[in-house]
Amino acid sequence: xxxxKRMKRVPLLLIVKDSNGNLLADGDDVLxxxxxxxxxSSEVLKKGTKFKNIRLVNGDHNVDCGKIMLKSEFLKKA
Length: 78
Known about the structure:
Helices cover 0% and strands 28% of the residues. It contains no helices and ten strands. It is globular.
């Protein structure tokens, strides 16, 4: 059997920009720039809604706002 070499884990550097091109970081506060309909629900997130203490994640929806994941293109730094 071949032995596999253990690879060192290197933390990924996420570069996420808001709708204005400002860099976002973990812990930032952001605002919605337009009304967004939630899929599978009748609720609407209103323009100007503030999300505090965001987390950046890998993927298509790259901002974790706690209960919801959003794309950074619909946010601006508060």
